[in-house]
Fold this sequence. Notes:
Helices cover 3% and strands 52% of the residues. Strands 2, 4, 5, 6, 9, 10 and 11 form a 7-stranded mixed beta sheet that branches. It has a 4-stranded antiparallel beta sheet with strand order 1-3-8-7. A hairpin with a 5-residue loop joins strand 5 and strand 6. The longest helix has 4 residues. It is globular and about 40 Å long.
Amino acid sequence: QVLLVESGGGLVQAGGSLRLSCAVSGVLETLFRITSMGWYRQAPGMQRDLVASISTGSSANYSDFAKGRFTISRDNAKNTVYLQMNSLKPEDTAIYYCAADVGSTLFKDSSIDYWGQGTQVTVSP
Protein backbone atom coordinates (compact mmCIF):
# COMPACT_ATOMS: atom_id res chain seq x y z
CA GLN A 1 0.00 0.00 0.00
CA VAL A 2 1.18 3.49 -0.80
CA LEU A 3 0.14 6.54 1.15
CA LEU A 4 0.89 10.18 0.53
CA VAL A 5 -0.23 12.19 3.53
CA GLU A 6 -0.34 15.96 3.31
CA SER A 7 -0.34 18.20 6.34
CA GLY A 8 0.25 21.81 7.27
CA GLY A 9 -2.76 23.41 5.68
CA GLY A 10 -4.98 25.82 7.53
CA LEU A 11 -6.32 29.36 7.72
CA VAL A 12 -3.91 32.24 7.37
CA GLN A 13 -4.22 35.95 6.71
CA ALA A 14 -3.01 37.46 3.48
CA GLY A 15 0.71 38.02 3.60
CA GLY A 16 1.23 35.10 5.92
CA SER A 17 3.05 31.82 5.43
CA LEU A 18 2.36 28.12 5.60
CA ARG A 19 4.55 25.08 5.19
CA LEU A 20 2.94 22.02 3.70
CA SER A 21 4.39 18.56 4.13
CA CYS A 22 3.76 15.39 2.18
CA ALA A 23 5.02 12.23 3.83
CA VAL A 24 5.08 9.01 1.84
CA SER A 25 4.70 5.57 3.33
CA GLY A 26 4.41 2.00 2.20
CA VAL A 27 6.40 0.64 -0.68
CA LEU A 28 7.05 4.16 -1.90
CA GLU A 29 9.38 4.69 1.05
CA THR A 30 11.95 2.43 -0.57
CA LEU A 31 11.42 4.15 -3.92
CA PHE A 32 11.38 7.74 -2.73
CA ARG A 33 14.89 8.51 -3.96
CA ILE A 34 13.87 7.63 -7.52
CA THR A 35 10.53 9.40 -7.30
CA SER A 36 9.98 12.94 -8.48
CA MET A 37 7.28 14.84 -6.64
CA GLY A 38 4.83 17.60 -7.34
CA TRP A 39 2.38 19.86 -5.57
CA TYR A 40 -0.94 20.75 -7.18
CA ARG A 41 -3.84 22.86 -6.08
CA GLN A 42 -7.50 23.01 -6.90
CA ALA A 43 -9.86 25.81 -6.03
CA PRO A 44 -13.65 25.26 -6.04
CA GLY A 45 -14.97 25.04 -9.58
CA MET A 46 -11.49 25.25 -11.04
CA GLN A 47 -9.15 22.74 -12.65
CA ARG A 48 -6.28 21.22 -10.75
CA ASP A 49 -3.10 23.16 -11.45
CA LEU A 50 0.53 22.26 -10.94
CA VAL A 51 2.15 24.51 -8.35
CA ALA A 52 5.70 23.16 -8.22
CA SER A 53 7.68 20.01 -8.83
CA ILE A 54 10.99 18.63 -7.70
CA SER A 55 13.19 16.09 -9.40
CA THR A 56 15.04 13.21 -7.80
CA GLY A 57 18.09 15.47 -7.83
CA SER A 58 16.16 18.26 -6.06
CA SER A 59 15.89 20.45 -9.13
CA ALA A 60 12.74 22.54 -8.72
CA ASN A 61 10.26 24.00 -11.18
CA TYR A 62 7.48 26.45 -10.42
CA SER A 63 4.35 27.72 -12.05
CA ASP A 64 4.41 31.43 -12.69
CA PHE A 65 2.09 32.21 -9.79
CA ALA A 66 4.39 30.38 -7.39
CA LYS A 67 7.72 31.83 -8.48
CA GLY A 68 9.33 34.01 -5.84
CA ARG A 69 6.79 33.08 -3.17
CA PHE A 70 6.79 29.29 -2.89
CA THR A 71 9.68 26.90 -2.35
CA ILE A 72 9.53 23.15 -2.87
CA SER A 73 12.06 20.90 -1.20
CA ARG A 74 12.54 17.28 -0.28
CA ASP A 75 14.13 15.30 2.52
CA ASN A 76 14.94 11.82 1.28
CA ALA A 77 15.87 10.66 4.78
CA LYS A 78 12.33 11.48 5.93
CA ASN A 79 10.58 10.48 2.69
CA THR A 80 8.94 13.86 2.74
CA VAL A 81 8.43 16.73 0.32
CA TYR A 82 7.65 20.24 1.49
CA LEU A 83 6.05 23.35 0.07
CA GLN A 84 6.95 26.57 1.83
CA MET A 85 4.43 29.24 0.91
CA ASN A 86 5.14 32.87 1.71
CA SER A 87 3.32 36.12 0.94
CA LEU A 88 0.07 34.22 0.61
CA LYS A 89 -2.84 35.80 -1.22
CA PRO A 90 -6.58 35.08 -1.05
CA GLU A 91 -6.33 33.62 -4.56
CA ASP A 92 -4.01 30.93 -3.18
CA THR A 93 -7.01 29.45 -1.37
CA ALA A 94 -7.41 25.87 -2.58
CA ILE A 95 -6.96 22.24 -1.68
CA TYR A 96 -3.30 21.37 -2.13
CA TYR A 97 -2.34 17.87 -3.26
CA CYS A 98 0.99 16.15 -3.55
CA ALA A 99 1.71 13.70 -6.31
CA ALA A 100 4.38 11.09 -6.95
CA ASP A 101 5.94 10.14 -10.28
CA VAL A 102 7.83 6.95 -9.54
CA GLY A 103 10.95 6.20 -11.54
CA SER A 104 11.07 9.58 -13.26
CA THR A 105 14.07 11.79 -12.72
CA LEU A 106 12.03 14.80 -13.81
CA PHE A 107 8.41 15.13 -12.74
CA LYS A 108 5.87 14.62 -15.50
CA ASP A 109 2.22 15.46 -15.20
CA SER A 110 1.40 12.64 -17.58
CA SER A 111 2.97 9.87 -15.51
CA ILE A 112 1.75 10.48 -11.97
CA ASP A 113 1.43 7.24 -10.07
CA TYR A 114 0.03 8.33 -6.72
CA TRP A 115 -1.93 11.22 -5.20
CA GLY A 116 -2.39 12.40 -1.69
CA GLN A 117 -5.79 13.20 -0.20
CA GLY A 118 -5.20 16.94 -0.10
CA THR A 119 -4.94 19.61 2.55
CA GLN A 120 -7.04 22.78 2.64
CA VAL A 121 -5.33 26.15 2.51
CA THR A 122 -7.50 29.19 3.15
CA VAL A 123 -6.12 32.71 2.91
CA SER A 124 -8.29 35.46 4.32
CA PRO A 125 -8.08 39.05 3.01
